[in-house]
Description:
The chain has 214 residues and is of the alpha+beta class. It is 56% helix and 13% strand. A four-stranded antiparallel beta sheet has the order 1-2-4-3, with helices on one face. The longest helix is centred in the middle third of the chain and has 47 residues, at 67-113. It is globular and about 50 Å long.
Amino acid sequence: MSQFLAPIHTWLFNKIKLAQDLESNIVKVHIDTFGEEVLSVQEEAIKLYGEYIQSKPLEELIDVNNIHGWLQNRIIEVESRSAYIISKYYDIYKEKSKELTMSEYKKQAIKCAKDESNKVNSPDNVYISLNNYILSGMPCDRATSITEKNDDYVIFEQAGCIHKKNYEKGNGNLSYLYKLKDLWIKSFVENLRVKYVYDKKENDGVTINTIRKV
């Protein structure tokens, strides 16, 4: 069956699983802090947005007659479900939930940053390494694009938000979820073995991101 799959499909699947792992870790730290009552939110989310992906090889899970559609549906599920859980926890547990959730975002990003396979010898390679981890829709969506690069920095832009539709489907707190996503990116970029900084600004509906070597 695996002959139907290309490396890009495995690459995307691994990013989906990483997002699912983050969600699971957030649920776990809320259980550790507030008890099993928090599981009711997770159960609601599963009923609304779908089950977690099983721990099996991709070729045993995917619909080979609809590879693109299967992967796209898994992105919708994980982003909608995570948006629901994270936002509900914040509504219920307020600042303590925010503290726990932010800690898990940072922790995962820093762990990914320490991976020796990351290419960090130039700003544009840092951008490529970053995109090996973060979900930004399907590859064909081209959610971000490099607009300027040199030996010192890379600038990449996005018009609109590829995540917004899924966050809204999950009744998510958009501003909160965007801040968490930015925190993940900043924590990753600024914890690589070569020193970089990350900055973001908005201009007429366009998000302008900069990764700069220090």
